[in-house]
Design brief:
Length: about 70
Amino acid sequence: MAEIFDELGKAVAALRGVTEQRERLIGRRDELIRAALKGGATWVQIQHVTGLSPRGLSLAINRLPKE
């Protein structure tokens, strides 16, 4: 049983790391989207590159950076 808990702890730690990395990458993507829009890119161009839906793109633009 102890081995299972050890493995479970490792799995949870790995998932936590992946989740944190994912959050950082999403934040960076959102920053780049806002910069692209300020630079003159269209929504359609950004959607083509990111694969985001119009709603997803809107959420990314309006999501506030975590401090």
